[in-house]
Amino acid sequence: MADRAERSASRRRRNTTIAATAGGLVVLLGVAWLVVVMTKGDDKTEPSAASSASAAPTSCTWLPLVDPSASPAPEIPKEVKDVGTPPTSGEPRTGSQTMTMDTSVGTIKIKVDTANAPCAAASFTYLASKKFFDGSKCHRLVTQSIYVLQCGDPSGTSLGGPTYRYAEENLPTGRRPAYTEGMVAIAKTQNPASSGSQFFIVYKDIESLSADYTVLGRVTEGLDLVKKVAEAGTVPDPAASGDPAAAASGDGAPKTEVKINSLTMSAAS
Length: 269
Known about the structure:
By secondary structure, the chain is α+β, with helices and mostly antiparallel strands. It contains five helices and 15 strands. The protein has helices spanning 2-7, 9-15, 118-129, 223-232, 244-247; strands spanning 18-21, 26-29, 63-64, 97-103, 106-112, 136-137, 140-142, 148-151, 164-165, 183-186, 199-202, 215-221, 234-235, 251-254, 259-265. The strands form three sheets. Strands 6-15-4-5-12-10-11-8-7-14-13 form an eleven-stranded antiparallel beta sheet. The chain has a two-stranded antiparallel sheet with strand order 1-2. Strands 3-9 form a two-stranded antiparallel ribbon. Strand 7 (140-142) and strand 8 (148-151) form a beta hairpin. It is globular.
């Protein structure tokens, strides 16, 4: 997929992970929150859970999406939804939470690993309290090489998110494969500290995705619904017209619409 992206203008557009403005002085992080295939590993050994995840940061820092020191001041992309930022302290750092997604295809529940991904959990808890996800669609399905349903962009364009970003945590380093069936992880750009609101649900083990994406948790109910959506396939991207490789990539909007009617987060326990 990465090779095809480099050879095709339309695939480059889909897989772009950063965009620069003002002569490259300002980097708009979060412009394309896409799950990108970085490497392909052959080592399938999997150590214990205790040794396979990176440590969480000791505090959560909510960074601005665009550089506020740039001159002239950049405009926040229109796809971004401003609901403020989470509290700067007091986030739970033990236990787990339940994320409940009431969707057009049924209920999906996720056990959020609050203890190991406290900042991601705090971000999702905050955004859920602002009804950030309500009414949005899962805008991307990938059925080849990587097997994910991607959601969390209110604009439905793959370019959207909140006005802030934060550092990655709970990375499944040392695991092969790093992302297994049922995992839920946070999408990001190729830059560090570029996690946001978009997340992907892994419906089949992925052999070719490096451990760069925060593991938010794991699906406990409704994974069968995601698999049915995957079986129905994708709608080809109009931008891929005339590009057989892109058209056959299995990467596009799901044919079966998945609309998030509401997304809620329980208290940590």
